Prior knowledge:
- By secondary structure, the chain is mostly helical.
- 68% of the residues lie in helices and 0% in strands.
- It has helices at 2-24, 32-43, 47-61, 79-92, 95-108, 113-130, 135-153, 162-175, 178-189, 206-214, 232-245, 248-261.
- Helix 7 (135-153) packs parallel to helix 9 and helix 8 packs parallel to helix 11 (232-245).
- The radius of gyration is 23 Å and the shape is elongated.
Amino acid sequence: NNLSHERNASDAKLIFRQMKEAEANGIPAIDGYVIARLITLLGRGRPTDQQFALDVAREYIGYAGPGEEPLPPKVKLTSDARLSVLLLLRRLRRSRLLSSYTEQLKEVDGENMPVWAKHVLESYHDIATKVPSNESEKSLELLKKMLEEAVRRSDKKFRPTMHNYETALMVCWRCGDWQSACEVFRLMTGYSAAEFTPPPHPYQPPSAAVEASAQSPKPLSRSEGLNLTPSNLAMLNLMRTAVASEDANTMLQFWEMYLYFF
């Protein structure tokens, strides 16, 4: 509960100050692990604890907000330390800081992309629900980057998961971005949304129906495991995006996509 989190944050702050005193007396006590755990505990505390956590991140990790000059890190930068800052910014709900930091992560911590990509995509959703933004385009670019890294490193763990695709489509819904949603759909399934064309009339003669079935959509030929069958949640978010477009043809196009898979 909140009271326990606040107590833990206060205790962590007290222990951290004692560690700083020990370091001042020449006793090494603070490393990347300590800083990551500290920021996590403080992030769950009161607003003053969260601000203290941000100051710690600036001093020890070299975190810098937009327009700020980063300080040299005092501890070894680990994936856990960077992730703790990302989760802190999510709790603070500061869209500008969150957006800036996610861009930094993509530049400096590609090795741990499978770990933090999930949280970055969720942070894009946080931003998209708060202010008008282009987070859907950023989500799409992150998915592409993950696929590129999977090929470059010959490592399947870098491929986007279904949860990653579901989250990206949720961002597209919040942004009302059908075009990006269709591109996410293509990356996820291997099918181009352009192949799902609604019939020109509600009723098709039998001959036309046969011709249409002969020209059914075909997926891209890709490595095994890349073309995924969309989950119910993925299709739900795709539907939400189509409805948000308020365009009849877009909604009909989604309906054709839904009928094909379900």
